[in-house]
Amino acid sequence: MQARQLEVFCMLMRCGTVTGAAAMLNISQPALSQILLHAEDQLGFKLFDRVRGRLVPTQEASELYPEAERIFSELGALRRRTVDMRHGRTGLVRLAASAPPSMSIVPKALTAFRQAHPDIIVRSLVAPIANILDMLRSGDVLLGVAMNDMPRHDLDVETVGHAGLVCLLPEGHRLADHAEVGFAELAEETLISYRVDTLPGRLLAGAVEAEGGVYAPAVEIDLSITALPFVREGIGVAVVDGLLPWSQFSGIVQRPFRPEIRVPIAILTSKERPLSGSHALMRDCLRRAAHALEPSGF
């Protein structure tokens, strides 16, 4: 399967229609259909059946797709790399971080890095952990920062710090005059916090169960920043990571959460792609920025 055929196949699998795939690839529908026919001729089997105006993948297509998608992602990363080289951006650091590190650790690391290496371009992306893992594996980024230090067979995972959990309250809330807040104080409150299948959610569930309770947020979140508008609107109170600079946001009050629960902060790199010198320097800056947060209670 040629690169263009691979591109068409993956986009058809994503979109499910010729119209949608053609629009995404910026080509005409007849041209896309022709590329698909040539691919099927070369392979010797059909990739799609037409059912009520939609393309339904055959069994063969479903089996091919995971590997095809991986190669397609790597081709995309290769194209972006060649564009960077064409524009002279060979001194380019590519990193992705989840929202809390992106708003706390990464800015401090970037300040130090830019002071020492002002000529190196830094491409910083914000993404959830699943996307960070995909980008590391495809080579789209070489550094990842996440609040999760689970071992990964194909990645090096280095724990560089921890973030404590805090309670966010609307201004004027009855608990705002408390020095700290725990599960007992939140028993009658609408709880906004992490899904139980996330790492912070599992840590919270274990802590509340140790006190004889049940962890059951009324509003479940993946990213701590999404709790901000809910708390501001008075929907409930939130238990989230303390890594974000919550004091910079109006309309909320932050209090320490007890018992103390600490979520790991990790730097992720690919075992298959050695870091360039500039990426290694950025990793050092990220380490120092994460370590600097530890005395603050995070």
Characterize the structure shown.
This protein is an alpha/beta fold. 42% of the residues lie in helices and 23% in strands. It contains ten helices and twelve strands. It has helices at 3-15, 18-25, 29-43, 59-86, 99-102, 105-116, 129-138, 199-210, 227-232, 277-293; strands at 48-51, 54-57, 92-97, 121-126, 143-146, 155-170, 181-182, 191-194, 219-221, 237-241, 252-258, 262-270. The strands form two sheets. Strands 3, 4, 5, 6, 7, 8, 9, 10, 11 and 12 form a ten-stranded mixed beta sheet that branches. A two-stranded antiparallel ribbon has the order 1-2. Strand 8 (191-194), helix 8 and strand 9 form a beta-alpha-beta unit. Helix 6 packs across helix 10 (277-293). The longest helix has 28 residues, at 59-86. It is globular and about 70 Å long. The termini are far apart. The mean pLDDT is 90.
Task: Give the topology, please.
Elements: H1 3-15, H2 18-25, H3 29-43, E1 48-51, E2 54-57, H4 59-86, E3 92-97, H5 99-102, H6 105-116, E4 121-126, H7 129-138, E5 143-146, E6 155-170, E7 181-182, E8 191-194, H8 199-210, E9 219-221, H9 227-232, E10 237-241, E11 252-258, E12 262-270, H10 277-293
Parallel strand pairs: 3-4, 3-5, 7-11, 8-9, 8-10
Antiparallel strand pairs: 1-2, 5-12, 6-10, 6-11, 6-12
Helix pairs in contact: 1-2, 1-3, 1-4, 2-3, 6-10
